[in-house]
Automatic annotation (TrEMBL):
<feature type="domain" description="BPL/LPL catalytic">
    <location>
        <begin position="1"/>
        <end position="116"/>
    </location>
</feature>
<dbReference type="InterPro" id="IPR000544">
    <property type="entry name" value="Octanoyltransferase"/>
</dbReference>
<comment type="pathway">
    <text>Protein modification; protein lipoylation via endogenous pathway; protein N(6)-(lipoyl)lysine from octanoyl-[acyl-carrier-protein]: step 1/2.</text>
</comment>
<protein>
    <recommendedName>
        <fullName>lipoyl(octanoyl) transferase</fullName>
        <ecNumber>2.3.1.181</ecNumber>
    </recommendedName>
</protein>
<comment type="function">
    <text>Catalyzes the transfer of endogenously produced octanoic acid from octanoyl-acyl-carrier-protein onto the lipoyl domains of lipoate-dependent enzymes. Lipoyl-ACP can also act as a substrate although octanoyl-ACP is likely to be the physiological substrate.</text>
</comment>
<dbReference type="Pfam" id="PF21948">
    <property type="entry name" value="LplA-B_cat"/>
</dbReference>
<feature type="active site" description="Acyl-thioester intermediate">
    <location>
        <position position="78"/>
    </location>
</feature>
<dbReference type="InterPro" id="IPR004143">
    <property type="entry name" value="BPL_LPL_catalytic"/>
</dbReference>
<dbReference type="GO" id="GO:0033819">
    <property type="term" value="F:lipoyl(octanoyl) transferase activity"/>
</dbReference>
<dbReference type="InterPro" id="IPR045864">
    <property type="entry name" value="aa-tRNA-synth_II/BPL/LPL"/>
</dbReference>
<feature type="site" description="Lowers pKa of active site Cys">
    <location>
        <position position="44"/>
    </location>
</feature>
<keyword id="KW-0808">Transferase</keyword>
<keyword id="KW-0012">Acyltransferase</keyword>
<dbReference type="GO" id="GO:0009249">
    <property type="term" value="P:protein lipoylation"/>
</dbReference>
Amino acid sequence: RYYQQDLHWYLRQLEEVLIRILELYGLQGKRLTGMTGVWLEGRKVAAIGIKVKRWITMHGFSLNVCPDLTGFDRIVPCGIADRPVGSLAQFIPDLTVEKVRWAVATAFREVFEVQLITLGS
């Protein structure tokens, strides 16, 4: 209710979050016309999948930080056969999900102009 009821806008905002995460690491993520997600040097490093019901979103995005990419050899990720999947660790060795967590929160806060709170452990 606080944002536009426009799914294309929402998808582009999520892409912007992902692009800003990459920028925080000195990497230049890009959008490709007609495709959803973020690419880095021709490799898809982030995918977005959402479900919306009554303008409440579920699911979100996946950012490949340091996965084992061999599993992608047996499938056609996102139905895109001619574009390889990549990960941030290919560009920044020793990067971990824990190290990227703060960048995700920072970029999300900036793009959606929200204040984030930390829940108790």
